[in-house]
Design a protein that fits this description.
This protein is an alpha/beta fold. The chain contains 14 helices and 15 strands.
């Protein structure tokens, strides 16, 4: 599938219409946070709270965040942790962003700009990471690539063909909706002779023209749920998504790889791409920059939001195009991170087909051998991952192959039946734990900030907590950090709506292996105990 790029709620509504050593501190008298301690407000949240809700406390603030602020205030004050490198394998990262200054990894073994592979790792001038995609921006979905290889009679080909047809019909239906909404907006704009019209102005339109009446009804519904500015931004995103699918992702004639000049089927060629970690067009690095910001943007500087971890450096690895990532690129990106000192990897990407999954399995095991935790997003299809194929994962032939891989579902900021994000995948075997993933405010390219949502945002929230643990308790292994993230979370007894379908409800405890939501305060308490 498309990398886990989330759309604003506007676009969604349109679819509906259609390094010092840490000191030892005793926390034995402190109790873990429990969700049932106080009644929680249902969806009433201020703009100030929304900007950083994932850092708030489920008891003190009555918002189901990760208690990050409380952890800093009560557990980490006057303490110094070790520097932790977090690799962000994504669409690229704007390492020049004002709120990521001082938070970007620099390869100490490379001399910038000398055109020499000083550290002899095969990657010339890899100062801040590596770009395995070169100048590629757009790519096919994996299922499209499978079809392009021809019918080999396999079940994989049959499934890919059926899925391609399904997606093609879906996107053409979306295009019809888009065309109707664009026509409606133009008709209203022409009628009112202004493009920045309000709901009140819409309601003032009196007409016997049936089509104009329909357009009025549609735009009234849209603008009743959002601002004009958000509508314009949302419809532009929706349009880009549709045409990216038609022109690149599902297009059997498109070949994105030829720009790179590398054979994705040959794992023996490993040294390709370049060192421009935001890619050929910085604005296309929005997803990766947002992910990096969730983890590492500077806390308390009155710019944008706050990062989860302070003593952290982002290693920028570009391997996720606008389309599906190649198994080869992901496997090499994981190995690059492990070889260059990353202790946590964030992977906010995924797909339903993986022709060379063996390469990725081996890379995950390689990272495990180097004690690197891999935090991965569960996906945004609202599906049960125990019954649907999704890659990468750490299960081979029904058995877990590594202890360093953790998969994250997405939380909403509303405690109650809507606690699970309506788009989030789930599964008692495949998904480990949930963290905040709806309306997360963070860095985007060119010194800007934006709300984004998706399990793509939930994963870096979890990765940030993992980095905190690894910073203050460096003796703990990746497997232990995974265990802490799962076991220390806040248990939730609520029955929640799944997949946004009001008729489909499940106990939150059955949506993941842990049945919990990540909590930084509890995680640090458990880490302290485990480290002793």
């Amino acid at each position: 599938m498309h990398y886990l790029k989330s759309f604003s709620f506007v676009a969604a509504s349109l679819l509906v219409i259609g390094c010092g050593a840490s000191k030892t501190v005793s926390y034995t008298q402190l109790s873990p946070i429990q969700a049932t301690a106080v009644p929680l407000k249902n969806g009433k949240i201020s703009e100030a709270e929304l900007l950083r809700w994932s850092h708030l406390d489920i008891v003190k603030d009555t918002i189901p965040g990760m208690s990050v602020d409380r952890a800093y205030q009560e557990l980490l004050k006057n303490r110094t942790g070790q520097k932790v490198i977090v690799a962000v394998i994504d669409s690229g990262t704007d390492i020049e962003h004002e709120d990521l200054k001082g938070r970007i990894w620099t390869n100490p073994k490379e001399v910038p700009g000398n055109g020499i592979d000083d550290d002899k790792n095969g990657y010339i001038d890899d100062i801040n990471g590596w770009n395995f995609l070169g100048d590629i921006i757009h790519e096919n979905l994996e299922l499209t690539r499978i079809l392009k290889k021809g019918d080999d009679g396999s079940e994989t080909y049959k499934k890919a063909k059926a899925k391609h047809e399904e997606k093609e019909q879906e996107i053409l239906g979306n295009k019809q909706q888009l065309d109707f909404i664009l026509a409606a907006d133009k008709a209203i704009t022409d009628y009112l002779k202004k493009d920045n019209y309000t709901v009140e102005e819409l309601k003032s339109i009196l007409t016997t023209d049936a089509m104009l009446g329909n357009y009025k009804m549609v735009m009234t519904q849209v603008l009743s749920n959002t601002t004009r500015e958000e509508f314009v931004e949302g419809i532009a995103e929706f349009k880009d998504y549709i045409y990216d699918q038609l022109n690149y992702n599902l297009n059997l004639e498109f070949d994105g790889r030829k720009l790179l000049g590398d054979d994705a089927e040959d794992f023996s060629t490993k040294y390709y791409g370049n060192n421009q970690v935001w890619g050929p067009d910085k604005k296309e690095a929005l997803h990766g920059t947002h992910v990096a910001g969730i983890i590492a943007q500077v806390r308390g500087n009155n710019l944008g939001g706050d990062g989860v971890a302070t003593n952290v450096e982002i290693m920028a690895i570009r391997a996720v195009p606008n389309g599906d990532e190649y198994d080869k690129d992901i496997a090499l990106a994981i190995r690059y991170a492990a070889d260059n000192g990353a202790k946590v990897i964030n992977g906010s990407f995924g797909k339903g087909f993986s022709p060379h999954k063996e390469w990725v399995y081996e890379a995950i095991q390689y990272a495990a051998a180097k004690d690197v935790l891999f935090v991965h997003a569960a996906g945004n299809d609202g599906e049960n991952m125990d019954t649907e194929e999704s890659y990468p994962n750490d299960f081979k032939d029904g058995k877990e192959i590594a202890s360093n891989f953790i998969k994250i579902g997405a939380l909403n900021y509303v405690y109650g039946s809507k606690l699970a994000a309506d788009f989030s995948n789930y599964g008692q075997t495949q998904v480990d734990v949930f963290s905040p993933g709806v309306k997360i405010y963070a860095t985007v390219p060119n010194n800007k900030y934006k709300y984004e949502q998706g399990t793509s945002m939930a994963a870096p929230n979890a990765a940030g907590v993992a980095a905190l643990i690894r910073s203050y308790y460096p003796s703990l292994t990746a497997a232990q950090v995974k265990q802490i993230l799962k076991d220390s979370g806040v248990s939730v007894s609520k029955t929640v709506v799944v997949s946004g379908d009001a008729s489909l409800k499940m106990p939150f405890s059955e949506l993941s292996a842990s049945g919990k939501i990540i909590n930084a305060y509890n995680a640090l308490l458990m880490a302290d105990k485990m480290s002793k």
